[in-house]
Protein: Dihydroxyacetone kinase DhaK subunit
Amino acid sequence: MKKIINKPENYVKEMLEGLYIAHPDLITYTADDLHCLVTANKREGKVGLATGGGSGHLPLFLGYVGKGMLDGCSVGDVFQSPSAEQMLAVTKAIDSGAGVLYIYGNYNGDIFNFDMAAEMADFEENIQVLSVVAGDDVASAGPSAPGEKSTRRGVAGIFFVFKCAGAAADKMLPLEEVKRIAEKAAANVRTMGVALTPCTVPRVGKPGFSIGEDEMEIGMGIHGEAGIRHGKIEPADQITDEMLDKIITDLPYTAGNEVDVLVNGLGATPLDEQYIVTRRISMYLAEKNIKVHRFYVGEYATAIEMAGISISVLKLDAELKALMEAPACTPFFRQ
Amino acid sequence: MKKIINKPENYVKEMLEGLYIAHPDLITYTADDLHCLVTANKREGKVGLATGGGSGHLPLFLGYVGKGMLDGCSVGDVFQSPSAEQMLAVTKAIDSGAGVLYIYGNYNGDIFNFDMAAEMADFEENIQVLSVVAGDDVASAGPSAPGEKSTRRGVAGIFFVFKCAGAAADKMLPLEEVKRIAEKAAANVRTMGVALTPCTVPRVGKPGFSIGEDEMEIGMGIHGEAGIRHGKIEPADQITDEMLDKIITDLPYTAGNEVDVLVNGLGATPLDEQYIVTRRISMYLAEKNIKVHRFYVGEYATAIEMAGISISVLKLDAELKALMEAPACTPFFRQ
Structure:
């Protein structure tokens, strides 16, 4: 895919410079490092929420820093984890005495670096850090046994975890409570995606894999991780049904449940197609007697310029529903 | 480009069904016709604002119907004008006695149908309709002589016209005043785009034109209309400068001016690249001593899945600035 960029090695730096220029009312950076993004509206006494991860997924991760959601984000190079030092700098900047909760996707590099950052924050800075690792992608691994660590990747569904935890922190709840809520949201969200085209990391300059001219890959990850089925492109309704079958039976979501649904474009797929999928999801869930509280449609977590869509479903209870409805104002999400 | 769709002939119908499902609090339709989209929150006594145009440009046009912006939109098939009857149905539904203002892009099919709708509204329904036709694309034709009709196409800059006129109507200003403001915004906005890839109309099933593997087309229209220069892809900064040179000298925008800037993705181009362009625009305008009041970055007006970007600049005065800052809540734009 052709790109409007300067030198590939400056891709993330220049993207970040543009972001700070465009959103000075919402975000800034700390430690003289563009990769250490923090809110411009720190609230004293509030639990700090931090995330982090590789670039190439805008608006994920950094785009959800703002009022009612996250307080900081360490930003890595494309598809690469930021360093422990960068996460520590973010942690120090956003802590205001109430502790910090990390919420991030289940990737080894991130876990390694952010665990180290949490330890440094504790030992060197006396900041209490707790962590919630989100793994919502049902295509990436089977469900984990009770008490076992999930091996599922974190994908677009983390938006729901950010939103619920962000609203909880905004209510000035204590760290343990915010963590409980983040874990509850993470435990109740499932995601699955389909990719039609690969994506190109700017420094690499060519796609890391290929998908045939008339083919799709169901369950592909947001870095191009292999999916669960490769085949001819099918009609949107059929693709949607296949993804929902996997999602719905996994938690499971059952008749009488109420859910929020995120229909997420992976990059190059137009909104029109996302709404065509929305229509089918609505029909599918109605048939299962699962009630949709609200649809979120648009690009919430991308894979650079990959064509494709993911569907995330969050099972609601009264607590999560109220948190999802709370106001938020970030560069990429407002309600 | 591969698509997640069902039958191509149902593309717009199913997209619209998905939209109404996702945004029941903001939009609905009239005349039993999905193509006649109107606000779900009609305000009595307010001037009604209607737009219309072909599909394939989401969030343009219909995505800006909501509080503080537009009241209705007639929706055509992909890249095709809606009918006069559809625009008339929208007009009837949104009029509440204060008259209706049409704001739409400068395309012959739309002008023909919407002029007819305006006449029918006047003669048959006794609704006063005025029209503002936006033509902001500096690449599409030279500037028009005073008093002469512009032959420039309307593109992403119409967002600014919607926003200013919408805020004016929201202040309960009378029809003539809302029209004056829409005309003022339209007169002070200029846009230029660059395309890297073509787009595919679903019914046609293949791209309507091609752009070479390492080439771009500067000035291409949002339906693939020929641009002003075809050439090898250049670095983002150079492309940005070339587009800004044309935009800035056209109005012209001069030292001391204050502007709002829209950096618009045409479909397949990631936000990262839009921010890289934002960065350069900021540097370019600072050098010219033109002050940016606010950047808007994202997909505001697309050409299905075209890769590319457009830049729109709105020259502000105190009146337009206040209107741009007013709140709005639509499916695709909130502030």
Summary: Chain B has two domains: 8-188, 189-317.
